[in-house]
Amino acid sequence: MTIKPVTYKSGTFALLLSFPLLLTGCNPSSLPLVGRFFGGGAVKEVSINVWGLWESESTLQPVLNKYMAAHPTVKIHYEDRSIMPLVDYKERVFTRAFEGIKPDIVLVHSSWVPRLAQGGGAWAVPSNVFEKSYIDNNFFPVVRETSIVGGNLYSLPSTYDGLVLVYNKKHFEEVGISKPPADWEEFRRDAISLTVRNDTHEKKVIVRAGAAMGLADNIDHFGDVLGLMWAQAGVGLPDAVASTQAIDALTFYTNFAKEDGVWDATMPESLLAFASGKVSMVLVPTWRLYELLPNMPDASVIGTAPVPQALTDNPVSWASYWTWVVPKSSPNPNESWDVVKFLVDPEQQTVLFSGTSKLRQFGIIYSDVSLAQNLSTNAYLKPAVETASYAKTWEIAGRAGNRRQIDALKATVNDVLAGKDAKESLTNLKTELSK
């Protein structure tokens, strides 16, 4: 058997002979010809701009630095946009997303996600970063309801928070109430018992309100409370906001002021009233405790509990949290989502919780379910964590930058308080909320 010699074209043979010399003396990626053969070429450097809220650069940047250390070609710059009013921040986010101007990653309220996604203003999470099933195992169910739009995943939660009942334990002891109310009828009875009036005055002025309930103008989270009541009544928003169930819930809410007189327009804003001992119960997200604790003469009187229920055997709570989105303005969606994946990783959430705990009384609730469950020993956070598995949310959440929706709801409450027909008022509200 004769083996024929292999012949080469002179150019190819010369290149093959030159490989050992090139590889010992040069970086192949710096040579265009060799780079093409090896699939190399110039390494792409990616610059990613992150917009956040309430976390300073000193808190978040160290975590981002860890990512950059493992990914040398990625440069991340974090901007804390807390100085902007939330309404302006939301407008800026939507404008940038739809006009194709950076940033690459933005922190948004969960209620913004559907409009961003439906309007084509956000990149869906690539399947190679996270499968949609990942959120079922790692985040609370409400995340699926707000983050998946049209079958695609559009956001990953930075943290979690929800409505809790905050009450004055000393006030409870004074009137013989041994535990916080579990349902709304019990809540109403307690609110009436806790209310103290100056009966010598002709108008029986409230000295101490039983609960911040019934009005809209001086209750910062009235939208959350009404959202909670409607969710518990099975009212789908906005489609069923003019239903009989919605009317009944709104009437029950306004009657705290109209019929029971446990709160009125003379009272200061609800959180300020609680801090000064002028109201016994408020319903607020846990982050409001950051403001309450340092402003209470005696913070030990603060008690927290799960929100009251309409049906205790079918509980529903209310969530209001912030989540990461990659807007269509980003030219680097894959790299941006990989950064978000890093930020929501349990290890990094633990680092951030530790960092924020040094600046505040406690950290914000983890978005990761397994980590959040470890907060059951924190009396302030426990009620929100325990009720998170059956939470709902929508665009009427307070302090979420949804000014149009909140203003429309406030007008509705005020109309009903003024004696206007609830059905008509809620029908008008439905029109506004459906825009």
The CATH architecture classification of the largest domain is: 3-Layer(aba) Sandwich
Kindly state the percentage of residues in helix. 40-55%
Oligomer: single chain
Proportion of beta-strand residues: 5-15%
| Major β-sheet annotation | 5 strands, mixed
Task: Compute the separation of the termini in Å.
Answer: 84 Å
The overall pLDDT, averaged over residues, is 89
| Biggest sheet: strand arrangement | 2-1-3-14-6
Ranges where pLDDT stays below 50 over 5 or more residues in a row are 1-39
Pfam families: SBP_bac_1
InterPro entries: Bact_solute-bd_prot1, SBP
Protein name: Extracellular solute-binding protein
Topology readout:
Layout: H1 10-25, H2 32-38, E1 46-52, H3 57-70, E2 74-80, H4 86-99, E3 105-109, H5 113-118, H6 133-138, H7 141-147, E4 148-149, E5 152-153, E6 156-157, E7 159-160, E8 163-168, H8 169-175, H9 184-194, E9 196-198, E10 205-208, H10 222-232, H11 244-258, H12 270-275, E11 281-285, H13 289-295, E12 302-305, E13 317-318, E14 322-325, H14 333-343, H15 346-357, E15 365-366, H16 369-372, H17 382-387, E16 391-392, H18 403-417, H19 422-433
Parallel strand pairs: 1-2, 1-3, 13-16
Antiparallel strand pairs: 3-14, 4-5, 6-14, 7-15, 8-11, 8-12, 9-10
Helix pairs in contact: 18-19
Organism: candidate division WWE3 bacterium
InterPro entries: Bact_solute-bd_prot1, SBP
Protein name: Extracellular solute-binding protein
